[in-house]
Write a structure and sequence with these properties.
Blueprint (H helix, E strand, L loop, with lengths): L10 E5 L2 H4 L27 H5 L3 H9 L14 H15 L3 E5 L2 H4 L10 H16 L3 E7 L5 H7 L6 H17 L5 E5 L9 H5 L11 H26 L4 E7 L3 E3 L4 H23 L4 H9 L8 H9 L4 E5 L4 E3 L7 E4 L2 E4 L15 H15 L3 E5 L16 H19 L4 E7 L19 E3 L11 E3 L1 H11 L6
Parallel strand pairs: 1-2, 1-12, 2-3, 3-4, 4-5, 5-7, 6-8, 7-11, 11-12
Antiparallel strand pairs: 9-10, 13-14
């Protein structure tokens, strides 16, 4: 008989990122981050992700000279910096057991190269963690979530330069030293695989600064530096906080063959293997042979020392986390419709509905993802991002969002099925438990939260927080540990 409840101690909660929530971009000694130069492009189709994340030296220079937040919504976020106590109280009211959040690297090290952290930044996070403790909310902290110091991007072209490893290790060690009384669960890099899709957002790589003809090689070199840094900080975290758990974080790009044509099946297999390889390195401590072989065929030479290989092998992660928003299909045919979503393009699945942003809704895909990942890695799993962006309407002070409740209910049921089938899933944090600035399109109108924030795409509004219908629904799910489903 299958269990209706989730396992005891299951970490129900939500997830935010500093760059999408905090605001206060020029307060408390914070330096500019790569997110602070991400523009809101009101006239670009919301499904044209490539244009939304496009950046170059010229646009970065212009952004650095612009001292307002008018075109740069991540500079203002939702003012979590000043309102964290109110927001955490709302999360506590929902019954959160966990909150995944990130540390803004440039709030602690404004240029990334300082010898000592900015103590005003350190104190801010201590205050946040103390507030969480009041409500018995466990922090799950991401060290790098699309917000590296802009100075490192401009000076070194981000992670392309090996010197950035030392900067990141210094930052991470400071986090472990100051936050160890409060934080047990750590993640190194958010969606480490996304470096190939949006290199600037993920790794501070300015595309027009890459060597012509060597773009792919330099991006993979930057990835290698991140993976080495991840292993080094995993080592340091285990030394400094013996009871800590350090995890990796993958965008789970679950892909099905569009048809049973063997070519479609082959392309799908290769796409899924490529998705896994980033987590493979962090779980198994070495690069998959098929990846190394592909690089060789493509003439990609990634420089890695014996010391790099040793640290990767010795310091693997304790658990695996992932984001799951949608599945897609793959086809060898040119005569298929491709659908956008999460800055990736996949072949549209005719059996699925989609959101207004073109993201296809596939709850069964979450169960498939959990089964695949657990079978492959045999480590505890955590779903640390999942949710749907939608337009919400306020009617007489109420926000009725049955579409959101339906989305989560169907995904939770599939997650429970996977657990009943034997998957060790220890937690779930919905993406954007409160409305925040969208990662890809920098919009506020693409709302994910159980809590509505009164702010529009242009920064207008009172910032008042309001509970949506889904707030009370999720509260009930947590309160009954899933039995109310």
């Amino acid at each position: 008989m299958s269990n209706k409840r989730f396992p005891d101690g299951f970490l129900w909660g939500g997830a935010i990122a500093a760059n999408q929530a905090e605001g206060a971009w020029n307060e408390g000694g914070k330096g500019l981050s790569v997110a602070d130069v991400a523009m809101f492009k009101a006239n670009v189709d919301v499904k044209d992700y490539a244009k939304h994340v496009a950046i170059n030296t010229q646009t970065i220079t212009a952004a650095m000279q612009d001292e307002s937040d008018a075109d740069y919504p991540k500079r203002r976020g939702i003012d979590f910096y000043h309102r964290y106590a109110e927001d955490i109280a709302l999360f506590g009211e929902m019954g959160f057991k966990a909150l995944r959040l990130s540390i803004a690297w440039s709030r602690l090290f404004p240029t990334g190269e300082e010898a000592q952290p900015n103590m005003e930044g350190v104190q801010f996070y201590i205050n946040v963690f103390k507030e969480m403790k009041k409500h018995n909310i466990e922090p799950i902290v991401t060290l790098s979530h699309y917000e590296m110091p802009l100075a490192l991007s401009v000076k070194y072209n981000g992670w392309v330069d090996r010197q950035v490893i030392d900067c990141f290790v210094r930052f991470s060690d400071a986090c472990f030293d100051y936050f160890k009384p409060y934080v047990k669960y750590w993640l190194t890099f958010n969606e480490v695989d996304s470096i190939c899709r949006h290199p600037f957002t993920t790794a501070g790589i300015i595309p027009d600064k890459l060597t012509l003809g060597k773009e792919k090689q330099e991006i993979y070199q930057a990835l290698h530096h991140q993976l080495v840094a991840s292993a080094m900080v995993t080592r340091d975290c285990h030394e400094k906080i013996p009871e800590s758990m350090v995890g990796c974080m993958l965008t789970k790009l679950t892909t099905y063959p569009h048809t049973c044509h063997p070519k479609d099946v082959e392309l799908t297999l290769l796409k899924n293997l490529d998705n896994y390889f980033y987590a493979d390195v962090q779980v198994f401590g070495e690069y998959p042979p098929l990846t190394l072989s592909r690089w060789q065929r493509e003439g990609i030479k990634v420089e890695m020392t014996q010391a790099d290989c040793d640290v990767l092998k010795a310091h693997t992660v304790d658990y695996v986390t992932f984001s799951y928003y949608m599945s897609m299909t793959e086809s060898a045919s040119d005569d298929v419709e491709r659908a956008p979503g999460n800055t990736i393009i996949g072949v549209k699945n005719p059996y699925l509905d989609e959101t207004e942003w073109g993201w296809q809704i596939d709850p069964v895909g979450l169960k498939i993802s959990l089964l695949e990942l657990y079978d492959r890695y045999r480590k505890p799993l955590m779903v640390v991002e999942n949710g749907m962006g939608a337009k919400d309407t306020v009617e007489n002070g109420n926000i009725h969002d049955p579409y959101r409740i339906k989305y989560f209910k169907e995904h939770f049921e599939q997650m429970r099925e996977a657990i009943n089938m034997g998957v060790d899933c220890i937690g779930y944090t919905s993406w954007g438990p409160i409305d925040i600035v969208s990662a890809s399109t920098s919009q506020m109108s693409k709302r994910y939260g159980f809590i509505y924030v009164d702010q529009d795409d242009f920064g207008q509004g009172s910032l008042e927080r309001m509970r949506k219908d889904s707030f009370y629904w999720y509260q009930d799910v947590i309160n009954t540990n899933g039995e109310s489903l």
